[in-house]
Structure of CRC domain-containing protein:
Amino acid sequence: MDNSQKKKIETPTPKSKFEDSPVFNYINNLSPIEAVRSIPTVQTFNSLSFTSPPPVFTSPHASFHRESRFFRCHNSVERSKALESLDRSVSTQEVVVASGEVDLNKEATLEDQEEETSCDRVDSPGTGDIVTQVLLDPSGGAPRGEDDGSSSQDVSVGLRKILDAQKENGTPRLMADAAELLVFRSPNDSEAFGCLVDKISSSERRFCAGVKLTKHRDITKDVPANDNQPLAVVPNQLVSNLHRGSMRRRCLDFEVLGKRKKDIPDDDQQTVGDNKAESSSKCVVPGIGLHLNAIAMASRGIKINTIHEDSTSVEIQKSFLGSTTPVQSQDIMRETLDQAESEPGKELAVEEETPKPLVFEELNQDSLQKKKQVRKVEEPGEGDSCKRCNCKKSKCLKLYCECFAAGVYCIEPCSCVDCFNRPIHEDTVLATRKQIESRNPLAFAPKVIRNSDSIMETSDDASKTPASARHKRGCNCKKSNCLKKYCECFQSGVGCSINCRCEGCKNAFGKKDAYLLAIMESKQEEDLSTIQQNSDLSKEVEQNHPSSDQPSTPLPPYRHMVVHQPFLSKNRLPPTQFFLGAGSSSFRKPDGDLSQARIEKKPLETVAEDKTEIMPEILSNTPITTVKAISPNSKRVSPPHIGSSESGSILGKRTNGRKLILRSIPAFPSLNPNQ
DNA sequence: GAGTTTGAAACT
DNA sequence: CAGTTTCAAACTC
């Protein structure tokens, strides 16, 4: 996140501004949420966020991972929808729309809201310290693994302090609400969010949309529905639920938690419902979230689960939970995931909207048996989100080991031999990790970088865009035709790209050929438009400055437009930028209208991987300097044609693309509460 | 569950 | 950087 933006979050906006905003008025009319309510939430929050030990694997690319994941969470259609919801909520202009969502989700529990607000307070000035104390202070935060109850109490106290502090500071409630949307922007939050979202990707991602958050909640939590919930709460529920605490850290301790989970009475789980078990298992995912591979796999696994939602699936997961899955007994995650599972019907409906299911359907067409097989394999796998390796010779200290590669310790279910990837050998693990990173700094970086295209228009076009998600290095398949999980691209659910050196690529998520073709087409398109624009510009210049010697090349006045051009250049992104993408949904229909989708995505793709922090800036009137620095295509700039009807459809599309991009800005939690 | 295939990771 | 070896997951039977 951009520092300046962060500051915005932490800096309370003048109350007057809020008072003037429709959101403020709306919220003002809502029955105030009493601090007391935060107590139950606090517990959940606590169990999720404060039980994690320090991360074992500290990668110099931590932030990178974070960001990558964060943006990946935006990659799918569901995510985009979710973010759209966020957008709506954030936007004061669309309060009405947001309220509609609230109605849909009014069953959302206060707990969620309180959790969110609690988190918000973390970012709130004057309360951050307290929160930090609560979070970091062992006595306050309760060491992980401790009884949730006690720890939750501690946290409750801490949060109460925060609450009080906030009251003293007079932090507007609106601020908190608005900040809710931004919570996951903090490093931990974003990471956790990214992890979980990634893990739960496809099916669970729909949470973000706030479409089906609720029923389950009401059933399980018996929390009165409140129509007067802050708008931001609904769309942000997933975030609020997921982002609390460092999941990465947790993942390293999943074994412990998993054991604890086993101890949890069945009643507990059943109270929450069968789905809970599943969700719990998915909660593990976050741990896996450390590695994109794992994430991607998990995403797919989950997807399959949801697609084939049935008793069997639940059963499998349950058994998995009960036995081997290192699951945390974290209510929040369960709840969140429960929500996703609680409404199979809806889920399926949502799935149908997403391309991914289709792909899997294709893949599963082989036979029903295959389906089940896949499910069986994937579920444990996704639970296996907490990777389980079977290493014999690598001692789980090489990237061969999925656990190690995922940045997680091996756990009980692993079948590894002479495993050194254990907390006991932390030093060894870290040393080895360092060594590997010295060799390849990105060794532990996400293999698949998903673009934040989700924030973009989630039209089919977008999903067809080949560049939505890509494997960072691409695959090298020779015999599998990129149709089996041998292929990392396929395994990650992304199409092959220019980075791939595969032969006979038939990747169901997107063939390399199609990708290249799309690039070529886009290039031609761009060239055409560039020429046209140049021509138009020349004419304009001549008209405006008949005596001017100015060349027809880009002119200063149009710089701001030029800024976008590089992004719009679809075929000039450096290889790494092709990785960015949104994966699952990408590539499926390469023959579709890619132009707009590409246009929309390009900007994000360009910055998603390493420049995610500046994305918001770029999206919103990014200074040309920044863009230039970011864009490798800066040299290829075409003069924008303003107000020219001759600009042609291409230009028009671009304009539209920009509009869409701007519209998506709020999806990345806007730092400006007034937005 | 054993054996084979595959491609990434590691090594030279 | 390319070729080879090692490795473990994915796959097949």
Summary: Residues 449-667 of chain A form one domain. Residues 394, 398-400, 405, 436, 439-440, 443, 473, 475-480, 484-488 of chain A lie near DNA strand B (CB under 10 Å from a C1'). The CA atoms of residues 178 and 545 of chain A lie 48 Å apart.
